[in-house]
Design goal:
The complex is a heterodimer of chains A (298) and B (391).
Chain A lengths: L9 H17 L3 H25 L31 H37 L1 H16 L2 H11 L3 H10 L4 H15 L2 H8 L4 H38 L10 H10 L7 H28 L7
Chain B lengths: L1 H39 L5 H6 L7 H11 L5 H13 L13 H36 L4 H13 L4 H15 L20 H35 L2 H8 L4 H23 L1 H15 L4 H11 L2 H29 L1 H6 L58
Helix pairs in contact in B: 1-13, 5-6, 5-8, 5-10, 5-13, 6-8, 7-8, 7-11, 8-10, 8-11, 9-10, 10-13, 11-12, 12-13
The chains are: A mainly alpha (298), B mainly alpha (391).
């Protein structure tokens, strides 16, 4: 960590004191609390995903008796102009978005690991090329790049999945490259080299265990970006057809009925998307805290 | 002494600018090749996009048009022809607007720049002020509320915010018009500046939200770090007042990274404007790229890809140059081809800053929603990767 611990700062002392009393009251430490929080977030996300998959298509189909209902206890998110329950549509859409997000972050994280490690270990022209490619991918606005890729794939679901999957690697590549470069300079790696261990052995024993947490955290933090970008592409009309409930298409449909004053069509689905994104962010940040014990002591 | 230093620093500035320009050109060329490959591989027939799906013409006529456009030539040949035309100022004719692409780009870039410029200025000023206040009064109610809101808003989808804003301010309150850049049904000659501004405010506000949130969070973080540093503690021990502390040791250290971040955020800004323009039906580059992508307008798509890349690159270059120009520490240490050095030259006697906090981001930092500035970091200042960190 580059920040020097500063025991003289008054703020820090006050904070420590606060944490202390808090811990005494609940009698569990911060690590356990973080773990419980993590488990809760995972449970929530898994619940939405599974609910979306096993949902009866009838649940989000049209019901012409219940058109344009305000949000009520029966229909928490209200119904639209075809009498479709917005809660069911939102859950279905979220689970679809999360699936796309999962695929996309796995692919992007895979690319990032390969490029980052290759760039840091091979050095020279590979390193320069990878850096240049990262600059290139970051030089075009992300959304424009995704529109181009989805255009190349002929739009539709595959277009969106491919576009989101192969454009999220640059930032993680930089992180992994920096991490590997730093590890290579560590004394224990130097010692291992001096002892005559091969680069594969060093990679497996010393580099990988240190990169893995970074990789996992990076993978989870790619999720929110991937989900938001999927929703954005779908919203613009590059993604799924309108009968498929996805958050993007729900919102883009809501846009057409904006002047009718049915505020719940846009408000709740977007809010759920925001909550899911925030959940994933919290998940990643908490995991980062767990994998980096030093962060608890600063 | 001073003259030689001035000469060497201007030489270093010249090499720096030349190097940056070369890098910029190579990246632009790569962008053009990449986007050309992508749109060429697309399964859309430009001839159909041009004549429209309803028009009935014979396959022979279609083939004749395709041959006239050179669609049967191999792609590298087509690319060279296109690039040659672009360099001569001809980007082709838009298939959906039936106008030269350069004309459309010029007209829409102006509209987009007005929108993005206003949002950019708003997010910079508002975000900085709020970040400084939050950082100085860390832990206060204002800080807590602002921080929570900023954390949520920094990831809120722009198109959703735009929908909500339209619904609240245009449909229910009717304070602002329902999108577009000028009043509907008014002659182009009668449109006043006030009309345009009135149509601009809501989209710009929406577009600036995520920027405000990000700048606030970033500035707050830097301010907290600066005020908890050893030099700030020492200043406190010298019984400097809070305002003196902030002005002398806080603002100077916080302003520079905020400014750099602000210029490096052009890509985000452009992406946001695509979404905001779609919701507000604002006739800028963003809505043009959506229309071009959806309706298969290849020349326009290519043109916008190039322009947007140029926009982002120029933001990055400005960020890098500003970094060198404004920061006295980097001005002092930016000598050309200086060999590897572990520590900064000790120029603290002339430096207005009492200390030099590490402004480099930690190498283990998590991916942020903002893209980092393209390379070419000032030498001798940032932590050099590969170096042993335990010094």
């Amino acid at each position: 960590m580059t920040e020097r611990p500063n025991s003289f700062a008054l703020d820090n002392r006050a904070e420590l004191h606060g944490a202390d009393t808090y811990t005494r009251v609940f009698a569990i430490n911060k690590r356990t609390r973080t773990l419980i929080l993590l488990a809760f977030f995972c449970f929530l996300i898994a619940a939405v995903m599974i609910a979306g998959f096993v949902m009866d298509p009838q649940a989000y189909g049209p019901n012409y008796d219940l058109k344009r209902q305000m949000p009520s206890l029966n229909h928490l998110f209200g119904t639209d102009y075809l009498g479709r329950d917005m809660l069911a549509r939102t859950i279905k859409g979220l689970s679809l978005s999360m699936t796309i997000g999962l695929v996309a972050s796995l692919v992007s994280a895979g690319i990032a690991v390969v490029l980052g490690i290759a760039s840091a270990t091979l050095g020279g022209i590979t390193d320069r090329f990878v850096n240049w490619a990262v600059d290139l991918a970051m030089g075009i606005p992300h959304l424009v790049l995704m529109i181009l890729i989805s255009f190349m794939m002929g739009r539709g679901l595959t277009g969106v999945v491919v576009a989101v999957a192969i454009t999220h690697w640059p930032s993680l590549t930089r992180v992994i490259r920096a991490e590997v470069l730093q590890l290579r300079g560590e004394p224990y790696v130097k010692v291992a080299q001096a002892l005559g261990h091969g680069s594969l052995w060093i990679g497996a024993r010393h580099i990988l265990p240190h990169v893995l947490p970074q990789f996992l955290v990076g993978l989870i933090l790619l999720f929110p970006h991937a989900i938001l970008h999927e929703a954005a592409l779908t919203f613009l009309g590059f993604g799924l057809p309108f009968d498929q409930p996805a958050i993007g298409s729900i919102l883009s449909e809501a846009m057409k009925h904006l002047s009718t004053g049915m505020w719940w069509l846009a408000f709740f689905p977007g809010l759920s998307l925001l909550i899911v994104v925030l959940l994933f962010k919290a998940l990643g940040e908490n995991l980062a805290l767990l994998t980096n014990p030093h962060s608890f002591h600063t | 002494m001073h003259v030689s230093r001035w000469i060497s620093s201007s030489i270093s500035a010249a090499t720096y600018i030349l190097g940056t320009t070369a890098r910029l050109l190579s990246l632009l060329l790569a962008v053009s090749i990449l986007s050309f490959c992508l749109v060429s591989a697309a399964p859309f027939d430009p001839v159909t996009a041009f004549i429209g799906p309803e028009a009935v013409i014979s396959p022979e006529q279609k083939a004749a048009i395709a041959a006239h456009w050179g669609l049967y030539d191999p792609p590298p040949l087509r690319y060279v022809a296109w690039l040659n035309n672009v360099l001569h100022g001809d980007m082709g004719i838009s298939l959906i607007y039936r106008q030269p692409v350069t004309e459309i780009l010029l007209e829409r870039a102006l509209a987009s720049l007005a929108l993005m410029g206003l949002a950019w200025a708003l997010s910079g000023i508002l975000g900085f002020v709020m970040g400084v206040v939050c950082g100085v009064f860390k832990g206060s109610v204002f800080d807590k509320i602002t921080k929570t809101c900023a954390l949520a808003l920094s990831v809120a989808p722009t198109f959703w915010l735009a929908l909500l804003a339209l619904m609240v301010f245009s449909v229910f309150l009717q304070w602002f018009p329902m999108g577009m850049a000028v009043p509907a049904g008014k002659l182009a000659g009668d449109v006043t500046l006030a009309d345009r501004l009135w149509h601009l405010i809501l989209p710009a506000l929406v577009l600036s939200v995520s920027g405000v949130a990000n700048v606030t969070l970033h500035t707050r973080e830097k301010m907290v770090t600066a005020l908890a540093s050893n030099y700030a503690n020492f200043a406190r021990a010298r019984s400097e007042s809070r305002w003196q502390l902030v002005r002398r040791h806080g603002l100077r250290n916080v302003a520079l990274p905020a400014l750099t971040l602000q210029f490096a955020s052009f890509a985000e800004l452009f992406g946001g404007s695509v979404l905001a323009e779609q919701v507000f039906s604002y006739p800028g580059l963003g809505s043009a790229v959506t229309a071009a992508g959806l309706r298969g307008d290849i020349p326009l798509l290519l043109g916008i890809a190039l322009v947007s890349a140029l926009f982002v690159f120029s933001g990055n270059v400005i960020a890098n140059v500003l970094y060198g120009l404004i920061d006295p520490r980097i001005r002092e240490s930016a000598k050309p081809f200086r060999p590897k050095q572990k520590k900064l030259p000790d120029t603290s006697s002339t430096s207005p800053l009492p200390n030099t906090p590490d402004t480099s981001s930690s190498p283990v930092s998590l991916p942020s929603p903002l893209p980092p500035v393209i390379a070419l970091k000032p030498t001798g200042y940032h932590r050099r990767p590969g170096g042993c960190s335990h010094d």
